[in-house]
Design brief:
With about 300 residues, this protein is α/β, with parallel strands linked by helices. About 30% of the residues lie in helices and about 30% in strands. The longest helix has 13 residues. It catalyses: L-lysyl-[protein] + 3 S-adenosyl-L-methionine = N(6),N(6),N(6)-trimethyl-L-lysyl-[protein] + 3 S-adenosyl-L-homocysteine + 3 H(+).
Length: about 300
Amino acid sequence: MIWKKVSVLIPSTLNEEIISDTFIGIGANGVEIVDDDNDEVKTKVNSYFDEDSYDSGLIEKLRSEIDKLSNFGFNVDGVEIKESSVDESSWENEWKQYYHPVHISHYLTVVPNWVDYTPDNKDEHIIVMDPGKSFGTGTHPTTFSCMQALEMILGNVNSLYDVGTGSGILSIQARQLGVKDIKAFDLAAEAVEAAKENIKLNPGCEDIEVFENSLLDGFDGKVDVIVANILADVIQQFIPDIESHLNSKGFVILSGIINEKEKLITDQMNEHGFSPIEVLHLKGWSTMICKRTKDIEEQDGAILR
């Protein structure tokens, strides 16, 4: 079977979720998001259509819908649309070519589950992932920065909530860095199953709990770290719940924030008694490490441990 592959190449000024929604709006059943190594092009958003029923006017329709985004304040300059054909018999290798081991740091590497990888040093932690399962393989700037932020704070940390877990990669990382009590949440049933499957690929992670749940709704416990790699609009919804779920001296890591919305999130965190102690920027995205403002003011010396 032959499929039509439609790709939208997005500059760093545009969020891929907007393009994903645009694809769905014109009849796509789903999309895949693939990072590009070019600094000027952040992401490719691809969708596949049955060639036998492919609408020859789809590209024109897609371009029209993308152009309309400028009416809502989005900068669509530099967006490219490409079309190609893919033979289903080579589909598996078609998408695998985009994935390779990702070195998050000297101590951490994410490896696709079909790659035979030898660690560069004895202290290197390996996270094995099936990139085809769900969002979050270490290649996207938000996941990459979030993992670096986690590595910065994890020391004497015993418990963690992973909000919007996606592939489960952050929970797996936390376990490998010594966190004992980990609960992961995602609203999408597919993500929950993907996280569980990826957890099985990593020895020692079997008891990480994964729940199909909206943010932290219905959970009353407190943890040392709350991490959320989700879109800024969703982060805003659960900021009011952070205080009641975070232990004294705890950390909050927020990622998935486009640079233009960093101030918005910072201001809302300030309103609820939290302030950033470190902000990482990568390819148009912000990742914030936060603590309670009073803890920052009281603490003398290093605050990342």
